[in-house]
Amino acid sequence: MGRQLKFLVGIAIIVGTVGFLVWTAVDQTKMYMITVSEFLGSGNAYANSTVRIAGKVAPGSMVWNAEKRELLFTMVDMAGIPGEVKVHFAGLLPDMFAEDRNVVVEGPFSDATPFEARAVLTSCPSKYQAKDGGTAPGYDQGNGAGGGKTS
């Protein structure tokens, strides 16, 4: 076997190994971001995958057991599409978690009830919205050509 052939075989093995490692890493960490209505209508489309489901905590559905650190709640679609997903989460209660607030839950796809979340992410969109008719502090709309941030 010539020296050049050994070199090519070595390069092929290295490239193949790196490609395999990248493929498996991407496959293990990829997840789908879907809404409650998409989750309910998906059937088994996301089987064997991790999903993130965006929705809103239904008012009156939150049950927090501080001793066991277990959270049970119902998520509804943010757009008001009928349907709900019951969620179970074991862990610390997220800081801004409250009823009627937008949340994202993450976990392995399953049609079992409740959905077992590994993580619960909260958001508070009102914190970053301008008041009615107002603009964000330090923001000048300029000459109507798109405006810009003032110094």
Number of helices: 2
| Mean pLDDT metric | 83
As an assembly, this protein is: single chain
Uncertain segments are: 142-151
Secondary structural class: alpha+beta
Q: How many E strands? A: 10
The H/E string reads HEHEEEEEEEEE
Distance between the termini: 69 Å
Overall spatial form? elongated
Which percent bin holds the helix content? Answer: 10-25%
Radius of gyration: 24 Å
Largest sheet: 8 strands, mixed
Beta content? 25-35%
Q: What features would you describe in this structure?
A:
Mean pLDDT is 83; it is low at 142-151. This protein has helices spanning 3-29, 36-40; strands at 31-35, 50-57, 63-65, 70-76, 84-90, 102-108, 115-117, 119-122, 139-140, 148-149. A hairpin with a 4-residue loop joins β3 and β4 (70-76). The chain starts with a helix and ends with a strand. It is elongated. It has 151 residues and is of the alpha+beta class.
